[in-house]
Amino acid sequence: xxxxxxxxxxxxxxxxxxxxxxxxxxxxxxxxxxxxxxxxxxxxxxxxxxxxxxxxxxxxxxxxxxxxxxxxxxxxxxxxxxxxxxxxxxxxxx
Length: 94
Fold this sequence. Notes:
Elements: E1 2-10, H1 15-31, E2 36-43, E3 50-57, H2 60-67, H3 72-79, E4 83-92
Antiparallel strand pairs: 1-3, 1-4, 2-3
């Protein structure tokens, strides 16, 4: 199992729009990707412009396949107008 932790920093004033787009479209897109076992989206308490996306993947291969799939570009295009930066890490879980 693989956990992907993404921190997404949103542009000032775009926080609520990002949350809405992710709830209405982004999470549904990801949920349908082969190899995705679970998803969680959280918003920072101290910094409401920071979001954390946790994706549980069956394996790194599933994540890699997603980045090469037709769904990847539309997903990135959903995030693009709202994001001003962030980071991503992957953890192998036992």
